[in-house]
Each structure stands twice: as C-alpha cells, then as structure tokens.
C-alpha cells in the first residue's frame, strides 16, 4: 500500500510478510532518498513559481480572482515553511547522532 503526500511517496513502516521485499543495498537506499528529496524540493519550487505567476498576472490585470491568488500564495508559503521545518529537524537529528558516543 502506497500513498502520496504533496508528491512524496510515503510507505507504511510495518507491512505483513507477504509484502516484504529483499534488502535494499546502500547505494539503492541513497539513490531512493536522493530522488525523494529532489522531488520534494521540486514540488516546493513548483508551488512558488505558480504563486509568482498568479501574483504577476493579477498585478497585470490578466486575472481578477484575488481569492485564487491568495490561496495559491498561502499554499506556497505553507509548503516552504514545512520544508524549512523538516530541514531543521534533519539537522537536529544529525547533530544528535554526531554527539553520540561509540
């Protein structure tokens, strides 16, 4: 079972034994992580670009729907803020791991 949240593929942590896959190599895991991260960043960029285009079109008088422009801008803002918060959590987790004694 797979679901998608804002273009990011999310998989359940636990699955029954019939759906178990063979172990993933380190290279494959890095590649999968890099692809997921890249698609998430592209999604944030796409929402920012869409917001900029609608704002510019409103300023030029090409569209009259202020509500649509504001909703698009808010989606872009939330998307960017979420990515910043995730970045902070990742950095905090990395720093915590680096402080661990072996």
Task: Describe this entry's structure for a reader.
With 102 residues, this protein is mainly alpha-helical. It folds into two domains: 30-62; 63-101. It contains two helices and two strands; from the N terminus they run ββαα. The longest helix has 35 residues, at 26-60. The protein is elongated, with a radius of gyration of 19 Å. It holds the Pfam family FliE. Residues 15-31 have a biased composition (Polar residues). This is Flagellar hook-basal body complex protein FliE. GO terms for molecular function: cytoskeletal motor activity; structural molecule activity.
What is the percentage of strand-forming residues? 5-15%
Instruction: Note the overall shape.
Output: elongated
How would a textbook summarize the main sheet? Answer: 2 strands, antiparallel
Q: Give the class from helix and strand content and strand pairing.
A: mainly alpha
What's the tally of helices?
A: 2
- Strand tally is 2
Tell me the series of helices and strands, N- to C-terminal: EEHH
Helix content: 55-70%
Distance between the termini: 37 Å
What does the secondary structure layout of this molecule look like, with pairings?
Layout: E1 3-5, E2 8-10, H1 26-60, H2 66-99
Antiparallel strand pairs: 1-2
Helix pairs in contact: 1-2
Keywords:
single chain, 102 residues, mainly alpha, 2 domains, two-stranded antiparallel sheet, 2 strands, 68% helix
Provide a compact summary of the structure.
The protein has helices at 26-60, 66-99, and strands at 3-5, 8-10. It has two domains: 30-62; 63-101. Helix 1 runs antiparallel to helix 2 (66-99).
């Amino acid at each position: 079972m797979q679901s998608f949240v804002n273009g990011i593929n999310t998989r359940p942590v636990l699955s029954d034994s019939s759906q178990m896959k063979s172990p993933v190599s380190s290279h494959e895991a890095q590649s999968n992580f890099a692809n997921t991260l890249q698609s998430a960043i592209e999604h944030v960029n796409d929402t920012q670009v869409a917001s900029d285009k609608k704002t510019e079109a409103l300023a030029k008088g090409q569209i009259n729907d202020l509500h649509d422009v504001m909703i698009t801008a808010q989606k872009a803002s939330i998307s960017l803020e979420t990515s910043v918060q995730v970045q902070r959590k990742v950095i905090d987790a990395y720093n915590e791991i680096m402080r661990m004694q072996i």
